Amino acid sequence: MINVTLLKGNTLENNAYLGKAGELTVDTQLMQLRLHDGVTQGGFPLPRGSDMGWDIMLSPEITAGSITLELALPAGFLINLTSNITELLFANVPTGRLVRFTLVFKQDATGGKTVTWGGNVLGNPPQPAAGADAVSVVTLVTADGGATFHVVS
């Protein structure tokens, strides 16, 4: 039996790593392999079976009214609205790609939480439904590396 041990780290650590040509690393945050070419920092994410697109569901937390959506790799976001979002940030938006992702907002048992959309989110971004335990879905797309985001639904 052959045992293989791979370097591993979270998404930010993987993004910063410059691996040797042919080296594999593991993103422990997204549970995804990356193949390195010795030139490209962060390497190239490999598809996972039926996981061939933007379907990993991440659940970032709201901290002091702020939430950051990590877009380095394909993902959708389940956002539990435990407080108002006064600052919505987008991190590590890929350039040279059409990046489309979905936000699922779920109100807590009280409801009534709101989102302050940044000026770079265009196309009348909606407020989440206000009722207790209400669920709202918004899809955004960017084609300019995150300079602007457009509401699709």
Could you list some keywords that capture this structure?
153 residues; six-stranded mixed beta sheet; four-stranded mixed beta sheet; mainly beta; 35% strand; single chain; 4% helix
Short description:
This protein is mainly β and 153 residues long. It is 4% helix and 35% strand. The longest helix is centred in the N-terminal third of the chain and has 6 residues, at 11-16.
Question: What would you say this structure looks like, in words?
Answer:
With 153 residues, the chain is mainly beta. The protein has one helix and twelve strands. A six-stranded mixed β-sheet has the order 5-7-9-11-12-10, with no helix packed on it. The chain has a four-stranded mixed β-sheet with strand order 1-2-3-4. Strand 1 (7-9), helix 1 (11-16) and strand 2 (24-27) form a beta-alpha-beta unit. The termini are far apart. The mean pLDDT is 89.
How much of the polypeptide forms β-strand, as a percent range? 25-35%
Q: State the major sheet.
A: 6 strands, mixed
Cα gyration radius (Å): 17 Å
- Low-confidence runs: none
Distance between the termini: 51 Å
SSE order: EHEEEEEEEEEEE
Strand order of the largest sheet: 5-7-9-11-12-10
Overall body shape: elongated
Mean pLDDT: 89
SS elements, strand count:
12
Number of helices: 1
Structural class: mainly beta
Q: Give the % helix.
A: under 10%
